[in-house]
Amino acid sequence: MSTSTSPAAMLLRRLRRLSWGSTAIQLFILTVVTFGLLAPLACHRLLHSYFYLRHWHLNQMSQEFLQQSLKEGEAALHYFEELPSANGSVPIVWQATPRPWLVITIITVDRQPGFHYVLQVVSQFHRLLQQCGPPCEGHQLFLCNVERSVSHFDAKLLSKYVPVANRYEGTEDDYGDDPSTNSFEKEKQDYVYCLESSLQTYNPDYVLMVEDDAVPEEQIFPVLEHLLRARFSEPHLRDALYLKLYHPERLQHYINPEPMRILEWIGVGMLLGPLLTWIYMRFASRPGFSWPVMLFFSLYSMGLVELVGRHYFLELRRLSPSLYSVVPASECCTPAMLFPAPAARRTLTYLSQVYCHKGFGKDMALYSLLRAKGERAYVVEPNLVKHIGLFSSLRYNFHPSLL
């Protein structure tokens, strides 16, 4: 009896090996087709994907972006030139209650003419505030002009509509700046001036510091309302030094120094692995559940999300304010920073104690203070502003590029 069953058992084992072998071949083919054909074809124009063909598309996409920015700058200029006045007087774009809950301070310098960056930013904020209505009645727009010369046309135009603080309006500078100060230290001093002016002028609960090339996203006010009134009531968030509303897309991949992203990446595999395994087993008409197949699909989905670009999957969080995530901040960059008033005052003290220079800008200074002073800071994902400026205010850029 045992001799008759032995060949059957051997045959069964061979069939099982054949079954697994065919599965392995199928998964190998799926991997080759996905990462060697389908993903490169679908993603070769995605700017923040590993499949992006930089040498094919970057120059053209950069030029198209600049042309579009020029058009939007002209549209923003016409927006303010055609803004109707009331009874012959020039209207203030947005006036909050006597003591605003949130001051939106836009820091501006005179940069590349024609693009009207600051007009794009202010016009978008104005439009979103109008759409927001009563929930945003406690929000105040405030322009901080830190241009040394008097040639900042856009700031002069906006002064008819928005309250403005001009750092260099008089002949004396109370903030100790002199023409020999390096551009990085001047930028920090400008930031200190604008943050302090916001606090002294309005005494708000929060100050949102926005650089003049950071255009707000459509969801910015509902998301901030949710974060500040609900999420930031949690003890570990309540005393944060600042909340960043922007992190460069090119630095949002999983393979980065931020350890929290590794946990998120593993979570992606744990979520999609079993799902893809169930789909595969169902369509392949294979009974039961296979742990090796699940491990494969976990790694497969993790690799696909990383190579396509984490940035694009983060966009799914825009479906609801409650889906936005708040994670520990890293050092780069400062296009939009939210400060609770007490934290803003601590920041003024901290920044007065550091000196900025090339390789140590204000963003790195702020980040270095977290550990030195025992503070915490966070960044919201996905971004709540779009960085549209390809011309830096710190260094000359004769060949502006998206990357």
Automatic annotation (TrEMBL):
Coiled coil: none annotated. The chain crosses the membrane at residues 20-43, 262-283, 289-309. The keyword ATP-binding does not apply. InterPro entries: PGAP4 (IPR029675). It comes from the Eukaryota. Keywords: Membrane, Transmembrane, Transmembrane helix. This is Post-GPI attachment to proteins factor 4. It comes from Daubentonia madagascariensis.
